[in-house]
Amino acid sequence: MILKTTTNPLLLAFVCLFVSFTKLQAQSFEAISSAIRVNDCNQNELFNTTGSGTRLLGPSANVFDNSNLGVFTQNSGTLTIGGAAVLTHKEALANVCNVRLYYRIYLQNATPPAYTFFNITFLEDCDIPNATFPGGGECVAGDQKWIRTLPTPINLTARPAGKYILETYYQLTGSTTSTSLCNEVVIVDNGGTPFKSSFAIQSPVLASNNPTTCNGTEGLITISGLLTGADYQVNYTDDGVPVGPVAITANGAGQVIINGLNAGVYSDFELLINGCSTDLFT
């Protein structure tokens, strides 16, 4: 009998395919979640780019992609990139040796420039017996946490007035076949495109016009250099008496106009939008 030497060709093909797939999966490395740190007048938090549930690195309400970060005054330093964090996973025979965040900033409708990057620092491995990171957060064997807080945040307000796009993606370097090599790259993005958010830079300028008649109320204060259609609140003093907040929408010329003013001393102007205030001086 020769039954011992016969093999079902279909079964053999299936077994080989299964073994090959299992081997590939056992040697992979990837990003489980990722986030970019955005600092503004109200918070200093991570904004999630990938991840879900308890594996998110930032608050669940903080979603970076397609978000509008707000309106900020030029050179105020009130909008910055403060760093980034990535949670990676590697199988037993794999390696992750470097994580980077790439970013670029450009005016809407302008040609995007080349990307700039900074490295994200390895922080800790998963504490396997406890299934948690030493610094907090659930994990499984092979999970690693990478975090970078920039000593000098990237000041997004240090650019001319206008509407901007902030794009970002991540690059993981490692190996699927070695625990020491760093010869393969995994890109973490939004399905082949970068993660994007938008923001606007304003450059407020204060000007005044006196009444044109004796004891008249034709005087006005104009704040120009603002974002067209944006809703502002304005505080000021009229002969030392506080006024406001006054809710005004910037007109098509990017101006907020306070009219109907009589002769007097108007000062201590404060412009507020999306939780950020700008002091203007007469």
Rg, nearest Å: 28 Å
Task: Please report which band the strand proportion falls in: under 5%, 5-15%, 15-25%, 25-35%, 35-45% or over 45%.
Answer: over 45%
Q: Which structural category do the helix and sheet elements fall into? A: mainly beta
- First CA to last CA: what distance? 106 Å
- The total strand number stands at 18
Helix content: under 10%
Number of separate structural domains: 2
Helix-strand pattern: HEEEEEEEEEEEEEEEEEE
Number of helices: 1
CATH C-level class of the largest domain: Mainly Beta
CATH architecture of the largest domain: Sandwich
Envelope shape: elongated
Task: Provide a concise account of the structure shown.
The protein contains 1 helix and 18 strands.
Explain what the structure shows.
This protein is mainly β and 282 residues long. The protein has 2 domains: 29-202, Immunoglobulin-like (Sandwich); 205-280, Immunoglobulin-like, CATH 2.60.40. It is built from 1 helix and 18 strands. Strands 3, 5, 6, 9, 10 and 11 form a 6-stranded mixed beta sheet that branches. Strand 14 (231-238) and strand 15 form a beta hairpin. The N and C termini lie far apart (106 Å).
